[in-house]
Amino acid sequence: LLDFRKQEQGFMKLKVECVDIVPFLEDVYRSFWELARKRNIVYTFEHPNEKMEVWFDPVQMQKAVFNLLSNAFKYTSDGKSVKVSVRKQQQIMEITVSDTGCGIPQDDLSRIFERFYRVDKSRSKQTGGTGLGLAIVKHIAVMHKAELKIESELGKGTEIKIVFPV
Ligand code: ATP
Ligand code: MG
Predict the structure, then answer these.
(1) CA distance 58 to 66
(2) Strand, helix or coil at 45?
(3) What angle do CA 115, 21, 156 make, to 5 degrees?
(4) What is the pLDDT of residue 123?
(5) Using N-to-C axis directions, what is the helix angle for 21-30 and 58-74, rounded to 10°?
(6) pLDDT at 121 (0 to 100)
(7) Hey, which of 4, 67, 75 would you mutate to test ligand 1's pocket, going by the most ligand atoms within 8 Å of its Cβ?
(8) What is the pLDDT of residue 128?
């Protein structure tokens, strides 16, 4: 909440560093390992086997990826799958979090990045939350001049990409 207020009031500043994104993402990935194991979720991390140094704010980007993963786990039932992947293409870096969870109705897709917006019919009622996670992710993406791409199909799953210029 404090982060959110800070963003809203325009006080959030980026502190960018040149970081190898693979070990960085591996760390975030690992924080959900135990949960995946307990819930029997097939959990994978796909990355090229090379150093991929890019400029970004690791503190903020960690929050963004963490929020996406937290959603993926919240909205995916036991036994299904969650995947993190990263790839670099010429001038862009793409971080993807995908799941085979409940999916998001097409009508709601354009609104889920709004603050406090939660999808009624999905698992939102069973799971706690305020509807701020994706608003925070969106803001962090914008600050990195990144684009957020989302594809989702009800009952099939969701894929969210953070695509940013390197
Ligand atoms: P908070 O993140 O503040 O704890 P939240 O997870 O409900 O709460 P957001 O992260 O902003 O809020 O997500 C908004 C809504 O988008 C969620 O309530 C949920 O309905 C939907 N949603 C987000 N990610 C997924 C996903 N991976 N699969 C299905 N629905 C999702
Ligand atoms: Mg969330």
Answers:
(1) 12
(2) strand
(3) 50
(4) 61
(5) 40
(6) 62
(7) 75
(8) 75
Indicate the length of the chain as a whole number.
166
pLDDT one digit per residue (tens) for the chain, 166 residues:
777 788 878 878 899 999 999 999 999 999 999 999 999 999 999 999 999 999 999 999 999 999 999 999 999 999 999 999 999 988 999 999 999 999 999 999 988 888 888 887 666 667 778 888 999 999 999 999 999 999 999 999 999 999 999 8
Helix (H, G, I), strand (E, B) or coil at 153: strand
Q: At 76, list the tokens.
A: 């995916």
Closest-CA residue to 74 (of 26, 134, 114): 134
Q: Find the helix packing angle between 133-143 and 58-74, rounded to 10°.
A: 150
Rounded distance from Cα 118 to ligand 1 centre (Å): 6
Q: Is 124 in the pocket of ligand 1 (CB under 6 A)?
A: yes
Enumerate the H helices of 9-148 as residue ranges: 21-30, 33-38, 58-74, 106-109, 133-143
Name the residues around ion ligand 2, CB cutoff 5 A. Answer: 71, 133
Contact 158, 99 (CB under 8 A): yes
